Amino acid sequence: MRTIRSAYDPIRGQPSKGSIVESKTTDFLGLIKGPRQYRVPPFQRAYSWEKEQRETLWLDILDQYDRLSGIWSDPEREKKLQSVPGHYLGTVVLAGPSALGVPRSDVIDGQQRITTLLLLLCALRDVRSRSELNARGTKEEREARASSARARVDRRYLVNEDEIGSDRLRLVPLAADRRVFEAIIDYDGARSFSPESIGLSEIDSKRMLQAYKFFHTELRRQGVNAEQAPQLVRFAGCFPLDLEIIEEVITRRLTLITIETANLDDVNSIFESLNAKGRPLTQLDLLRNYLFMLLGSKAEAALGEHWSLIERNLHRPEQVEGLIWAEVVSRGTNILQKRTYRTVQAELRLEGGTPEATEAYLKSLARKSALYAAIVHPERESNAGLGRAFARLTKAGGVTAYPLAMWLLEQRHLGHLNTYQVVEAIGWIESLLVRRLLAGLPTNTLSSIFGSMLSRLHGDLSGVEDRLHRLQMSMIHNQRDWPTDAVVAAGIEQEDFYHSQKAAQRMLILSTMDHALAPSTVLNYGETDDSIEHILPQSREAIEWISDLADIGEDFQEVQSRWLHTLPNLTIVTPSENSALGARRFASKAELYEESPYKITRDVATRYQLQTGGNDHWGASAIQARARDLTALVTSIWVRPEYDLAEPPTPGANDQEFDVDPGEELVPFTTIADELDPSEG
């Protein structure tokens, strides 16, 4: 055993005096033998190992099995085992143990490995029990042997035999994993075993059940099919497995280094410096650890009241991490997402790092998680117009604008804006995103652009009382962020629209233009490239097109090279029509376009084509004409703000307080705002 009496202090940035960290090397049996209990603390992520991690561990175990099986029947087995190196599983970091009752330790790092090995032992128990039931002997003898086999594994590895209640289990996972883990521990091997049979809900993790079934299947494997399991070919001679040897490998041939300390500063320092095998710690992992370390004795209560609310609102860890980043930026601190943990850590240090300050932050975050949920799950938003605005924002590629959307919702919460104004402002954000996409401007600066807007809102412009006017001033502070109409026009003619960003963004632009051309028509639009038709075809060998364009003095390949993927050469069709149209000559396409439900496509057949010798033609002049029309349409829908910064917008005569006249020129995106009654607050 090694004792370290000085460890890094994450609060002071220097070694903490008088701290004791104990380190030792052990096998899995030495770690898990009871009575003992390991608890997964609230700041840890739920069980997250997937197929790749499970298979890696299983192959390591099979490698040890292969080494042992050759000497297992040797009379000098124990002596020869000493010369066979075990498999090193890494470091396990523990906080504790408790002084009273069953020794308890919190698992700071290593819970994924501990949990997986216990699930493997559960599968081993159940496979061995089933083999005993199928062995020779009377029914009573077989059932007795099966029961004895189950009890031995439970007693040695899984439960504290003389304890009841929460002290019974050797491992207590997080709430999301607890139901399925206890069900696997208590499974009797007789009944069916599925998410439904053990009553799992949507919030319960199913990864543990997947891991258990994986190992249960592998332990019963009789041979190796090289095509189905090529990774097992080198172990083909090991199957079927001897379960006694497998148990020896799991419990005695897997070695770990355990580090245990009772000093919370040391725990956080060690946690920050470690990466779980195969799954690096995320900003969320690090921050959750730090928050619950600061909460101390209040951690369990805070988990149940605040953190659980966050996880109910946002089901996926990446969404929770996005919330924390967006919340920081919405308050005017312009950071990249990878700096979230360090920023919140520094803020809490300035507040003294007390449990009270930490709980206040967590309580505020839980409240704001409902705001963020409305942005990332717009279908949950009770106001239909606002839900549509958020759905459009996401389709427009507005993830980097989520902090600004959160600021808007927070201003509504505080009574400074109403719902109509929030919808209007979301339209401005969409306008910026669409114009930049059409102009071919890079997206890697968007996070900085929106972060700078929020910094100005909380900084130089914080004295502007009217929140909507404050936002307008911040958004146009840097005119270079907003492409002019001329820049948008050039982008429409020159940029590769078909391959720009994501299909949902492209279809948002095309469908919005179509709706603007026929506002009374309500249609469903696809969100994939299957709904986007190249009028001039992509094929380089379109013989009829080559001939048709030659008739009007144009070179097909030159026109194709210049215009193929630009916006004016694209339109909307159904996926089935797209595959059928292909490289048909334009006259044939135009017949189908005329019957299209989409106005933007019908116009292609009736407004732009040249007629020579009775045939319709789609060449450079037609595409240029359509480019001009689409530019006028685009710049009227997604407007670039142009107004006097000295005066806030004047409300219309019939507007309620905080409302903006939906008819004035300051509204850049009327197709959203017009769907919402301006009197909605």
TrEMBL record:
* All copies of domain GmrSD restriction endonucleases C-terminal, residue ranges: 482-632
Extract the InterPro entries matched here: GmrSD_C (IPR011089), GmrSD_N (IPR004919)
Highest taxon in the source lineage: Bacteria
The record places domain GmrSD restriction endonucleases N-terminal at: 31-292
The family database entries (PANTHER family) matched by this protein are listed as:
DUF262 DOMAIN-CONTAINING PROTEIN (PTHR35149:SF2), SLL5132 PROTEIN (PTHR35149)
Q: Can you say what this protein is called?
A: DUF262 domain-containing protein
Q: Which organism is it from?
A: Agromyces tardus
